[in-house]
């Protein structure tokens, strides 16, 4: 778990949100079944995603931070699961020592999954239908698909595959020549989980795919129902061209360039 402790300490893309790894059984944190997906059993540790509620963009920032850490944990062959509604935030908060206006917005158990699923787990997973995804033509507006550059195709596909509460996939995308704007489908939250947190997860997927294409982006946070706009820049040595109608973008609130560190 040393690598995860380092990750939680050093991956800080926003000052108002943080992650804390708790080397303590989370049995009292969870409420039995985690939505329609199954139960958390025998996990030795958990990670809490903690946000300062004075930040009006805290939900999307928590989703972005949390998914970055969950993807890194998965790369370490650890089992994880987003839990946003079926846990006791006051219990989790007492274990991570929240301060001021902080609140635990979501958690993930950390452990090793068994090779074979039990009958109960197979039934619960099938009921959850967690792997079905909406087609992009239901999610994307703006620039015609035939005009999408390669980076945009990859980024949108990556965002489409992002996890969300009960697989509701609340994100909608509006694409321009060098930007992707993400919004929520409706502003009413369900299952006691913010749709904007889900959109923050999709934001992380968009940016990871963008970097895979040799590009970098800057996020600008927007007013509801919009969440944020990703403005795309070419890296100095990038070989992937921007759209031919490239124009310089206006002012934006940039996300600090602090990615998960290379883990030992």
Question: If you had to describe this structure to a student in words, what would you say it looks like?
Answer:
It is globular and about 50 Å long. With 264 residues, it is of the alpha+beta class. A hairpin with a 4-residue loop joins β7 (215-221) and β8. The protein folds into 2 domains: 2-113, NADH Oxidase (3-Layer(aba) Sandwich); 136-234, NADH Oxidase, CATH 3.40.109. Strands 4-5-6-8-7 form a 5-stranded mixed β-sheet, covered by helices on one side. A 3-stranded antiparallel β-sheet has the order 1-2-3, sandwiched between helices. 28% of the residues lie in helices and 20% in strands.
Describe, in short, the structure shown.
The chain is of the alpha+beta class.
DSSP helical segment count: 6
Estimate nothing, just give the exact number of structural domains: 2
SS-based structural class? Answer: alpha+beta
Rg over alpha carbons: 18 Å
Name the beta content range: 15-25%
Counting copies of identical and different chains, the oligomeric state is single chain
């Amino acid at each position: 778990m040393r690598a995860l402790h380092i990750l939680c300490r050093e991956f800080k893309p926003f000052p108002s949100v943080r992650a804390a790894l708790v080397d303590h059984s989370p049995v009292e944190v969870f409420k039995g079944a985690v939505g329609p997906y199954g139960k958390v059993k025998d996990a030795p540790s958990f990670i809490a995603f903690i946000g300062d509620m004075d930040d009006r963009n805290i939900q999307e920032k928590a989703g972005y931070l949390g998914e970055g850490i969950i993807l890194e944990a998965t790369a370490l062959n650890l089992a994880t699961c987003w839990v946003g509604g079926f846990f006791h935030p006051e219990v989790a908060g007492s274990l991570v020592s929240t301060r001021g206006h902080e609140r635990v917005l979501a958690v993930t158990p950390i452990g090793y999954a068994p090779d074979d699923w039990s009958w109960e787990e197979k039934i619960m997973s099938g009921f959850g239908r967690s792997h079905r995804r909406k087609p992009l033509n239901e999610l994307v507006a703006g620039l015609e698909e035939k005009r999408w550059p390669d980076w945009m195709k990859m980024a949108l596909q990556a965002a489409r595959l992002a996890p969300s509460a009960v697989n509701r996939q609340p994100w909608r995308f509006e694409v321009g020549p060098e930007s992707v704007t993400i919004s929520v489908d409706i502003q009413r939250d369900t299952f006691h989980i913010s749709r904007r947190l889900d959109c923050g997860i999709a934001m992380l997927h968009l940016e990871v795919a963008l970097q895979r294409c040799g590009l970098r982006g800057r996020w600008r946070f927007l007013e509801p129902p919009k969440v944020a706009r990703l403005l795309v820049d070419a890296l100095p040595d990038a070989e992937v061209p921007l759209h031919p109608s490239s124009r310089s973008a206006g002012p934006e609130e940039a996300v600090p360039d602090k990615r998960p560190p290379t883990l030992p």
